Fold this sequence. Notes:
- By secondary structure, the chain is of the alpha+beta class.
- It is built from eight helices and 17 strands.
- A hairpin with a 5-residue loop joins β15 (227-236) and β16.
- The longest helix is centred in the N-terminal third of the chain and has 24 residues, at 19-42.
- Residues 1-22 and 41-62 have low confidence and may be disordered.
Amino acid sequence: MTAADSDRDGGDRDASESHSEHGEAAEQRSELLEAYREESGSGSDSKSKSKSKSDSKSKSKSRKAQSGESIIVDFVANFVAGGDAAFDPVKGRVLMSERRLVLATSDTKTMIPITSIFDIAVGQVPPEVEEFFDYTVMVGYVDGDYRRTTVIGGDRETIEKFSLLLFRATLNGSTALVKHPAKIGGRVMDTPKRKTGLNLDYESVSFPGSDVQSEEDGPFSIDLASVVFFEVIERTADDGDSILVLSVQHVENGQTVTSEISMRSRRKMNILGRYLRLIYHWIKSDVRDVEVAETELEVLVGLYSTAQDIDLASLLDIGDAELEARLESLHEDDLITDEEPPVDLTPQGRFIVNEEFEDINV
């Protein structure tokens, strides 16, 4: 699995969409991801502050169920639960706590423990239900001795936000073995593996470290907009067992760094790979139709490489009016967070800069 593979998977379909449709989808995603960042930054007991229209459909405000669990998702959708051979979608409620996913109608209730989920596939509408759904998430899970699949469909914005929360519920708090950096450029590093936690955000996968940390064991994160290549490798562990290792190449401070991540759980490794593949495709698709002039790229690199209090106009040897015009253009393309300093690069902006660094490294 590589970043290039993920781009090819959705390339044909995305190429057929008009630029205006693509821009609208990117704008909607920007709103829902802002809500996701607020949700992930303040915990499952916070209220989503998104003002998008999905708020009227998706009640992400936490509340307590009768069992004492915090409900972090509650919305109405159409779904096919438990691999129903008839592929007959029904309308009901989708609820999720940190422990389970529940699909409920007036007649039935399907309960899926979070720990039983082995796959999450977003945006791939199965042929059997494509006449019923515009956008879906497929959830694969184990039920006793059987593997089952549930398909949940709805508008793109709601399904994408729900999927992000489902990924987070499935992976957050996991324990991972990490080797960082495993390589810097082409040079193999003698970095020991260390045990650490793992947490997802839209823009990064973070590793907070262990409870007892040395200077080398401190927290770090992988900026998902900086990823240029990733693959899953099967290796033999010290005890002789076969394990999966996720090798991620990403840009740090202008150079390519490789980090290696492994977890004992193969299902979690599969889901983590799905997550990286999904986010890479989203970011890549959002900049596919954006053309950045050389003069604007200079501004992006300047913003990426310098502190916010640096006089960027003087650094680039241009006038204030010219800088304002370039910032306005970059903001219109959703590559920076604001038209006026202080500004940050969006994930799409960082993606473009990191691709530039990668071209230089190659």
